[in-house]
Design brief:
Low-confidence stretches: 1-8, 261-280
Distance between the termini: 54 Å
Structural class: alpha/beta
Strand content: 15-25%
Radius of gyration: 23 Å
Number of strands: 8
Strand order of the largest sheet: 3-2-1-4-5-6
Length: 280
């Protein structure tokens, strides 16, 4: 029984998306804590289903500067992702979150457009307050245009750091997870993964549900109209056909709303088929 429960908890979530991890490796992060952080990221990536033909993940480390140490296409299996992360060097210096977000936006330009997108910021404190630092609002606006959601994992025990420093960065307060050490963060990773999968899939799921509905309904529509013509008499048949057409137009409207909200202009791959924007 214990073995079953363990395997169930460790099983990857039913999630497929594009994830960018931003790792604070500034000078306040000790080598031991940096290694703990990399192990946490590996665990989180595993829960988020990173692997062949599943989720993809990229890693950006930041301090005074920021650099991509693992790109979306740098590995073929999860083990390759883990190995590349293991050898990711620390950036050192002050904590410039703006530089990490800039690179995250660059990476998202090559992300798959039909999948949820998440940016996960691991930080031990707020943005460095020094000359040359850009307002985070600039990078956040681009994240929104890239249809990505930001999540903050704040690990600190400093009185100079407050969660209010990060509430303006996220859509809701619960998108911030705080803890006083990396060791204490480790047990929370499964629940963090669930939150990321659920929140970043919000618009994508709505889009795919509406697309599934329109494909199903368009296939049924002709059969319903044939049935009404064959077995119903005037004026009932006219009323029923009008109701069928109104329902179909409503389904199209829901699809178009989510289609334009997401900004997708490419084919959506689903169930082995490619479908484009349907028209009446």
């Amino acid at each position: 029984m214990k073995k079953f429960l363990f395997s169930d908890v460790s099983k990857p979530l039913e999630f497929v998306g594009e994830v960018v991890f931003l790792l604070d490796s500034s000078s306040v992060v000790t080598p031991n804590n940096y290694n703990l952080l990399k192990n946490i990221v590996k665990k989180l990536a595993k829960h988020l289903n990173v692997g062949p033909r599943q989720s993809r993940a990229a890693v950006v480390v930041f301090g005074s500067n920021a650099a991509t140490t693992v790109n979306f296409d740098d590995y073929k299996k999860f083990s390759g992702f883990a190995q590349a992360l293991d050898v990711s060097p620390a950036a050192d210096g002050t904590r410039k979150i703006d530089k990490a977000l800039e690179i995250a936006n660059q990476l998202l330009r090559s992300a798959r457009t039909d999948l949820p997108r998440a940016v996960v910021l691991f930080t031990t404190g707020r943005q460095a307050q020094e000359n040359g630092v850009k307002p985070l609002s600039i990078a956040l606006r681009e994240l929104e245009s890239n249809k990505a959601k930001l999540f903050v994992l704040l690990v600190h025990n400093s009185p100079n750091t407050n969660i209010r420093d990060f509430t303006s960065l996220v859509e809701r307060r619960r998108d911030i997870v705080t803890e006083t050490s990396f060791e204490k963060l480790k047990p929370k990773i499964r629940s963090v993964a669930k939150m990321i999968a659920s929140r970043s899939s919000k618009y994508s799921n709505l889009f795919m549900h509406s697309l599934n509905s329109i494909l199903l309904f368009s296939g049924m529509r002709e059969g319903l109209i044939y049935f009404v013509h064959s077995f119903c008499f005037y004026p009932a048949n006219t009323v029923l056909i009008k109701m069928i057409d109104e329902a179909y137009k409503t389904a199209i409207s829901i699809y178009e709303t989510t289609y334009h909200a997401i900004g997708s202009r490419k084919k959506i791959k689903m169930h082995g088929m490619h479908v484009r924007h349907p028209t009446l």
